[in-house]
Amino acid sequence: MKRILGIGCLAGLAAGVAAALFAATVGRGPIQDALALEDSISHATGGTHHEDLFGRGVQEVGGAVGLILFGLALGVAFAVVLAAVGPRLVDPTPLPASIRLGLCGFVAVVLVPFLKYPANPPAVGDPDTVNERTLLYFAALGLSIALTWAVWRFHGGIAMAPAVKAWATAGLYCAGLTVIFLALPGNPDPIDAPADLVWRFRLASLGGLTVAWTTLALVTGTMLSRPSARA
Amino acid sequence: MGLVRGWRLCETGCMEAHALPASAPALPHVDVPVWAWALVVLAAVVSYFVMLENGVVLSQVSETLHEFFHDGRHFAGVPCH
Predict the structure, then answer these.
(1) Does an H or E element contain B47, and which?
(2) Across the interface, which of B29, B52, B71 has its CB nearest the CB of A59?
(3) Which of A113, A130, A224, B13 has the fewest CB atoms found within 10 Å of its own CB?
(4) Least CB-CB distance to B72: which of A64, A96, A226?
(5) CB-CB contact of A77 with B43 (8 Å)
(6) Which of A1, A66, A227 comes nearest B69 by C-beta?
(7) Residue A114 CB partners (closer than 8 Å, separation 6+)
(8) What is the rounded CA–CA span in Å between residue A28 and residue A17?
(9) pLDDT per position in chain A (231 positions), as tens?
């Protein structure tokens, strides 16, 4: 258990660093454009520009630190779930198990919440609705994880012909997703920024998270595959 | 010892599955201790403070945290002001 946790920490740090590098290269342009837009809007409307707590340099470093910390936390959680679930997968050898869990985790934790509430660049977002949006985002994340867990339990706990079970499992997941997407309200904020800028940012964000999860799954699986002195 | 499926060309040129000896043994069945799940909760709490705190739990400090991690938050796709 301690070995897999140690590996999870390292893989999580690697994932965080990969995401931070992606953010610093691909994500930087859209964020700067969005901040410039934000400034031009507040000048045009004659609003007093709120005093920034930190300069851009500090925020870029802080963003990288945040992503690395987030990666570390993700790595720990990934390792514990892999230890619990991995031995029960179709192929319980470390790399295939890690890749499968990584793929499921990415869809449940990143992709489904992203499809319901896509990431927005700095110029978008009303400070007055941030708590509401945080709550909605949490709800989408929690329901997505709960649905994945429920479908996994269904698949493991029911006796059916394999082909029927595969269709039933996929159908259950799709039905659950439909309910989640219909039940949750849309993002309350209007999006005034140009669609081009918003989508460049969204794709950079999704790309960075894909890089992070890929790194996490591959590093965890590869490191676990190496023979260890302690079993 | 688990088996890894692989592919190779057979003599007639078709693809056939064959079994390679696995380089790594299967993940062992372990009882995940409670402290490990506690770590997952801790990781979730850390993620919350890094990524989602907007003043619900910490009112004053949160703005500093929020602004410091600002770029990372946007990039990770969590809601932001």
Answers:
(1) helix B34-47
(2) B71
(3) B13
(4) A64
(5) yes
(6) A66
(7) A202, A205, A206, A209, B77
(8) 15
(9) 889 999 999 999 999 999 999 999 999 999 999 999 988 887 777 655 555 788 888 999 999 999 999 999 999 999 999 999 999 998 999 999 999 999 999 999 999 999 999 999 988 888 889 889 999 999 999 999 999 999 999 999 989 999 999 999 999 999 999 999 999 999 999 888 999 999 999 999 999 999 999 999 999 999 999 887 554
Q: Which two tokens stand for residue A201?
A: 């940012």
Instruction: Give the pLDDT score at A40.
Output: 87
Report residue A78 CA to chain centroid gap.
12
d(CA A5, CA B35): 12
Task: Give me the interface pTM, i.e. the ipTM.
Answer: 0.84
Minimal Cα distance from B21: which residue of A? A93
Residues in chain B with CB shorter than 8 Å from the CB of A204 are 75
Of B4, B69, B79, the CB nearest to A62: B69
Instruction: Report d(CA A73, CA A13) in Å as an integer.
Output: 9
How many contacts does A have with B, using Cβ atoms within 8 A? 176
Best A81, A90, A100, A134 member to test B by mutation, with max B CBs in 10 Å, is A134
* Dist. CA A3–CA A153, nearest whole Å: 27
Pairwise CA distance, residues A151 & A149, whole Å: 6
Residue by residue, DSSP assigns A67-123 as: HHHHHHHHHHHHHHHHHHHGGGSSS-SHHHHHHHHHHHHIIIIIIHHHHHS----TT
Mutation target among B71, B73, B78, B80 for the A interface, most CBs of A within 10 A: B71
Please state whether A173 falls in left (phi above 0), alpha (psi between -120 and 50) or beta: alpha
| CA–CA dist A53, A55 (Å, integer) | 7
Low-confidence residues of chain B, pLDDT below 70? 1-23, 55-56, 58-59
